[in-house]
Amino acid sequence: MSYSCNTTPNPSLKSTFEERKGLLSNFDVEDDGRPPRYGDEEYLGFQERAPFHKLIFVRIISVFVALTLGTAFFLPMSRSRCGEMAGRSMGSSALLSNGTHEFKRTVLIVSVDGLRADYLDRGFTPHLLDISKQGLRAKSMRPVFPVSIPLNHWSLMTGLYAESHGIVANSFWDPVSEQEFNPYNTRAGSLQPFWWLGEPMWETAGKAGMITANLMWPGPPVTRTGSKPTYLGTFEETVPLSEKLDQILGWIDLPLEVRPQFISVYEPSVDIAGHNTGPHSRLVNDTLKTVDLFAKNLQDALKSRNLTEIVDVIFVSDHGMADTSHPEWIYIDDYLGKQALDFIEHEDGWPSMGLRFSPEANTTAYLEVLLEAAKNNREKFDVYTQETMPKRYHYSHTPRIAPIYIIPKYGYALTTSVRGKSGMTKGNHGYDNRDYRMQAIFIAHGPFSSAVKALHHQSCMQNENEGWHSTLDDAYIMDPFQNVEVYNLVMRLLGVPKNLWARTNGTDGFWDRYF
């Protein structure tokens, strides 16, 4: 795996392996006589700090005073006061300490591609569930339509619907640039900035002067404004999770001056297993165990560094997965006639089908035929134009969306007599984004979730079931929400000034109740 670092850290900031070991407590570190490496890039450790014993007395006195004042004022604290304190804490830019080193507020977001929301109920992810019980978990997180990988990862990263950020399908034709977008063929230019509209989290954080790191998150290495993450790990499909964990910790173990405050990580293994063998397969369950172990090891590493109240960790997925091992095939030329296939210039998306006919074709007539076919087969598929597309899809306002869109219902697959039954895997996504099989996960743990718990236990929220609830044995459950809300949460956790936030499709004030 290759790595590029857009900003070269100062070599004088490197620490010895023994110094990095000294950062850990109650944690066994295997000393192989050399610093950990990822590819050809050496991890950097912490600088030596000023003698720590001089700070201990001051901190003890501070804690004593805080506890004394807290006892005096805790009971009469009002709901608004609780919210004020939580909001100020989350937005603070002051340096924090894990007891040995200084840190800035840090957010780590990990996307596990294809991790369907109800996978967490199978019994193969005890550590993820434990993390969610310590923090927050949504019943599910709704993906953006169409439910595809690059599209939803860019929605998570920018807070925008597909019609706003321009990635409207796994593959599509852009009539403005007269180019084809195909994320699986980087030589075709799909990573060129002009495709990817909107402002990703790492660009906004960079505007606020923060160091950022991106480990394989789908998207361009450089935005249209020329912005790029400080540290960039380019995508490779088969990198083990253990190596990704090493890289994450390598970034977290950097000296303060070059340490990223925002880290985004992408893991495709669950999605790959779901496509190849279906969502109910042994391979998917085994892959869930591997991901769960990664989550445990990550959490243990943060605990051993005393960082659980400094680093906010957010686990998400882009979508779920449906069993498509035995679909009922729909041949569109059975309705249009085989001659119509000669007039289709571009066919976008999968499993939906966006159609662009050539100028000499009678597109209106073909549309009328398809609309009549959909009317007679409501249980199988729908046909829309940009004008009739359901508003809840937010899928109309860009020329990149094909003028005719056929959307199959679950259990059905679109094809032509030329293509046949090729291309369908045993598991797939791309169906109605309200379907339970398409739902994604959201789990958060760290100072954010701790503050929410404190607010709850202090009765700052009078209605326990107003959007979330908890019991001693249950996770803190949030109601389902759309993934375009995540951008604003991350900006708030990082303490980015609101005037620097990009415009998004997220709901203004959505996260207020949790702060």
Overview of the molecule:
By secondary structure, the chain is α/β, with parallel strands linked by helices. Among the domains are: about 260 residues, Alkaline Phosphatase, subunit A, CATH 3.40.720; about 100 residues, Gyrase A, domain 2 (2-Layer Sandwich), CATH 3.30.1360. The chain is about 30% helix and about 15% strand. It contains 14 helices and 26 strands. The protein has a ten-stranded mixed sheet with strand order 1-12-11-13-6-14-23-7-25-24, with helices on both faces. Strands 17-18-20-19 form a four-stranded antiparallel sheet, with helices on one face. Strands 2-3 form a two-stranded antiparallel ribbon. Strand 17 and strand 18 form a beta hairpin. Helix 3 packs antiparallel against helix 13, helix 4 packs across helix 10 and helix 8 packs parallel to helix 10. The two termini are about 40 Å apart. The N terminus is likely disordered.
Specify the CATH homologous superfamily of the domain at 103-160 and 198-323 and 441-514. Alkaline Phosphatase, subunit A
CATH topology of the domain at 103-160 and 198-323 and 441-514: Alkaline Phosphatase, subunit A
Approximate shape: globular
Alpha-carbon Rg, integer: 25 Å
CATH hierarchy class name of the domain at 103-160 and 198-323 and 441-514: Alpha Beta
Which architecture name of the domain at 103-160 and 198-323 and 441-514 does CATH use? 3-Layer(aba) Sandwich
Residues in helices, as a percent range: 25-40%
Gap from first CA to last CA:
39 Å
- In the predicted model, the low-confidence regions spanning at least 5 consecutive residues are 1-92
Main sheet: which strands, in order across?
Answer: 1-12-11-13-6-14-23-7-25-24
Structural class: alpha/beta
Strand content: 15-25%
- Whole-number mean pLDDT: 83
Biggest pleated sheet? 10 strands, mixed
- The number of helical segments is 14
Count of DSSP strands = 26
